[in-house]
Amino acid sequence: MDNYDKNILKHLQEDGRMSNLLLAERIHLSAPQTLRRVRSLEEQGVIRGYVAQVSAEAIGLAVMAFVSLSLDREQFRNVREVERNIMAFPDIIECHTISGDFDYLLKVVAPDLKSLSQFLTDSLMQVPGVATLRSMICMEEIKPVSSLPIV
């Protein structure tokens, strides 16, 4: 990946809807060369997709929580099945395997605290293989999802 590719990534992270013509102008390449590079970055999986960043509060999801989850390894051994169950919940917007006392860190959204509690108790804790949950309510989002640093 050269400086042109890095520059493309920087600009597309700032504005994924930027036209190819404007992008080419910003990185000082011709439009066909720029398009070829963008398509190559997409094919390589460097650019995974394009999305709109939506305000959770604006669509009625006022509560965000981080949930640490540990597995019950004594009674359940199919980790991938647990992961498939976790991925099926739209309330869980991120899931990461982690080191330490817990196995996963989840980012969960809900309309209100009661809904969050019901989701954790009635849905997530019912997934076979889930042993323990610990939730931390987000009081205020200081730095929302942002661009990756391109070095």
Strands, helices and their partners?
Elements: H1 3-14, H2 20-27, H3 31-43, E1 63-71, H4 79-87, E2 92-97, E3 104-110, H5 113-123, E4 130-137
Antiparallel strand pairs: 1-3, 1-4, 2-3
Shape: elongated
Name of the CATH architecture of the largest domain: 2-Layer Sandwich
Overall average pLDDT:
94
Order of helices and strands: HHHEHEEHE
Low-confidence stretches: none
Span of the ends, CA to CA: 11 Å
Identify the CATH homologous superfamily of the largest domain: Lrp/AsnC effector binding domain/regulation of amino acid metabolism (RAM) domain
Adjacency order of strands in the biggest sheet: 2-3-1-4
Largest sheet: 4 strands, antiparallel
Portion of residues within helices: 25-40%
Integer count of domains: 2
Instruction: Please identify the structural class as seen in this structure.
Output: alpha+beta
CATH class of the largest domain equals Alpha Beta
E-strand count: 4
- CATH topology description of the largest domain: Alpha-Beta Plaits
Radius of gyration: 20 Å
Sheet-strand content, in percent, reads: 15-25%
Helix tally equals: 5
Keywords: DNA-binding, Transcription, Transcription regulation
GO biological process, one term: response to amino acid
GO molecular function, one term: sequence-specific DNA binding
GO cellular component, one term: cytosol
